[in-house]
Every structure is written in C-alpha cells, then in structure tokens.
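Usage

Read records sequentially. Each one opens with the input sequence:
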Amino acid sequence: MNKKASMELGVNAIIVLIIALAILGLTMSFVTTLFRKGQEQVGSIIANVNMPVRADSSEPLKCEMRELTIKPSSKTQLRVSVYNSGNFAADTDARLFLDCYDEEGTAVQESTLRIGAPPQKIPLSTDVGYGAIVISKDAGAMIYTCRVLASSAADLTGALADTSAVSGQVYITVRS
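and closes with the structure output:
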C-alpha cells in the first residue's frame, strides 16, 4: 500500500471533519436562536390566553367587568387588558389608576377607592393583561362611576394630565 495515498486520505478526512463540525455548530446556533424567539412569543401568547377580555386598537383598555360590588374597607379582583397603539414607549412602564366620582359628581379621593397592579411594559401593537385589585377604604355605601386609566405617569394627577393615557369606565357599588 502506498503511504502517501493513506496520508492524503487522513488529511482529507480531517478537513471534511472540521468542515462538518463548523456547519454543525452554525446550525445549532441558528436553531437555538430560533427556539429562544419562539419561546418568548409563545410565553406572551400563553400569558394573554388567561385573560377573559382583550383590548385592541378600537378599544385600548377593557375591563373584565363593567360593574363591581365591594364592601367598605375590602378588596376585589379586576382583570384589565391594555393595548399599546403607540400611547406608551416600549421601554416605559404603564401603570393603572382609578379616577372615581360619587353619585353627586364629586371627585373621590384616591385613598378612598384605588386600584393596585404592578406596572408593565407593553410592546407596540400588542395588549397586556393586568391582574388588579380594587381597594375600598372608608368608601360610603353608594355607586361610584370610575375611570380606569393606563398611563406612564407616576401618579393619578400625572395620569389625568397625560394626553396619551387610555381609559375605560367601570361602576363600583359599595355595599355594607
């Protein structure tokens, strides 16, 4: 057997092996990146599937219920969906606020009826669900007309002045 021919076969095999490993590495990198992107998208889809309401560009804030009944000095849950049609920067947190009025049209102090929910970033042209808690503290027994506002402002005063804030209406009945 010719020693030169066997040596060439070994060098060719090594070159082919190196090329194959490089292609395998590139393929694995591509597939890993593809799965990461898919996992992020599926995660956001799964998170929004549990929401009973979905906001969209025609109604950028939707509440699960339009009428809530709550006892004085207690809490109840409310699911809210907020759609970002360019109202919020993608890297800015959107917060929920509650602006309420009593039966006589008088503004109710924020500490009397308020909403608690963690701030969230809302990507452009998507909706995000909030699991919020409506808190009644020293609210008198009556029906309150309230606006649920979503804004990037830090407080209710800023949210009311925010021209890019979105809102939806809800009626809160406080019963003893």
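Summary fields computed downstream for this record:
- The longest helix spans residues 3-49.
- The chain has two helices and nine strands.
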